[in-house]
Amino acid sequence: MVAYSFQKRFVPHILAGLEPGPWLPGMKRHTLRTPRDGRSRHARPEQMLQLYTAQRTKYCRLLGRPVCRAAFHVQLLWDCGELSIRRAPGAAAPRSYVAQLAPIVRRLLDEPAGKHFVGDDMDEFARTDGFADRADMARFFEVPEDEGETQWLPRVLIAWAPGHPVDVSGGGL
Questions:
Q1: Distance CA 170, CA 50 (A)
Q2: Regarding beta strands 61-64 and 68-79, do their DSSP bridges make them parallel or antiparallel, or are they unpaired?
Q3: pTM, rounded to two decimals
Q4: Cα radius of gyration (the chain)
Q5: I need a labelling partner for 14 at 20 to 30 A (CA). Which of 63, 75, 100, 129 fits?
Q6: What is the pLDDT along the chain (173 residues), one digit of tens a residue?
Q7: CB crowding 128-156: b at 16 or more within 10 Å, else e
Q8: Which DSSP state fits 53?
Q9: What is the superkingdom listed in this entry's lineage (predicted)?
């Protein structure tokens, strides 16, 4: 099992996304993470995940144990004050289990690697990841405000199936 921890602001979106059924606005069924090397790797499809909030603190709570359905490389691009995302060139697009992902994530998988999603599409993607908009996402990833600097931010998109929420109303784990 691979564990991922989330800030408190994302908990309602994750809990909604763990509910069975099709994707609806307000659900979070994926995360973007920095690529890892060596033995500490990200989840692979069909592996069980553990989703936590406040991990490694006394407030730690297990949110759910969904199954990873997709893991693929993407790139966030900060260019001239604008944030965009694309599937990384050469990154394979998983074909199984895409129906219950957000429509913008399905489009990211269907488009050729390297096609950028900008503007309203980027706002839509940011909302599916629990952000208010692309500016909120840029602040979260601490993208510098330098208008002239182009930066690539490599990430891995890990998507999970709905199901296996844990009751978080009680005390600890």
A1: 18
A2: unpaired
A3: 0.88
A4: 16
A5: 75
A6: 899 999 999 999 999 999 998 889 999 999 999 998 777 889 988 899 999 999 999 999 999 999 998 888 999 988 877 889 998 887 776 666 677 788 898 888 888 888 889 999 999 999 999 999 999 998 898 766 665 567 788 999 999 988 766 665 544 44
A7: bbbbeebbebbebeebeeeeeeeeebebb
A8: E
A9: Bacteria
